[in-house]
Design brief:
The chain contains 5 helices and 7 strands. The chain has helices spanning about 10-20, 45-60, 95-105, 170-175, 180-195; strands at about 5, 25-30, 65-75, 115-125, 130-140, 155-160, 165. The chain has one domain (about 5-195): Maf protein (Alpha-Beta Complex), CATH 3.90.950.10. It is of the alpha/beta class and about 200 residues long. Helix content is about 30%, strand content about 20%. The radius of gyration is 17 Å and the shape is elongated. It has a 7-stranded mixed sheet with strand order 2-1-3-4-5-6-7. Helix 4 (about 170-175) crosses helix 5 (about 180-195).
């Protein structure tokens, strides 16, 4: 029987992506395990927020938990919105994208470089953690393109593909996204968990 893994996210887009990457484990979401505490992202790094969320839900649920924090880091904005990407503007994803494009409206194409970054934390109820990070570099387009993905996906253009992340299929995105790259580094730890070798016995 596969071992349970709780994903510490209420974002359906993130959940779909992580489920697609987690074959062989019994994936649980917040809807399957309740009540779970609300966790404020108060740390000043993606790694800190991911660790904080993973530990809080692991201890509350008594389940090994995977949490992520991700952000869009734009060079012309000195790294903003960065760790504050989800709170960059009030409202929905479209409102945050509009604010970003407004801030970059006078920035020429060659200076619109940016990267999505992701930190993934695997946490055990006993307090052990493993954190891995991944990055997906690109360029901010002048207008949203594509109906897939979520968040800032419609405006991060992947130069080698000539398309935004929102124009990619889930399969394509799962090969090159920041989350997929972090997950690839974390995968050996998930295999160890699935085989009963992590976390180490007390």
């Amino acid at each position: 029987m596969s071992r349970p893994l709780l994903f510490a996210t209420t974002n359906p887009g993130k959940l779909r992506e992580l489920q697609a990457l987690s074959a062989g484990l019994q994936v649980l979401s917040a809807a399957d395990v309740s009540p779970l505490p609300a966790v404020e992202e108060t740390e000043d790094s993606l790694e800190g927020n991911a660790r904080k969320k993973a530990l809080a839900w692991a201890k509350a649920s008594s389940l090994v938990t995977l949490a992520d924090d991700s952000g869009l880091f734009v060079d012309a904005l000195q790294g903003r919105p960065g760790v504050h990407s989800a709170r960059y503007a009030p409202g929905d994803d479209a409102a945050r994208v509009r604010r970003l494009l407004e801030e970059l409206q006078d920035v020429p194409d060659g200076r619109r470089t940016a990267a999505f970054r992701c930190a993934l934390c695997l946490a055990a109820p006993t307090g052990e953690t493993v954190v891995e990070t991944g990055s997906c570099p690109g360029r901010i387009s002048t207008q949203p393109k594509g109906a897939g993905g979520f968040g800032y996906d419609p405006v991060l253009l992947v130069p080698e593909l000539g398309r935004t992340l929102a124009e990619l299929s889930l399969e394509e995105k799962s090969r090159i996204s920041h989350r997929a790259r972090a997950f690839a580094l974390l995968h050996p730890w998930l295999l160890a968990y699935a085989a009963g070798r992590w976390p180490p016995a007390a």
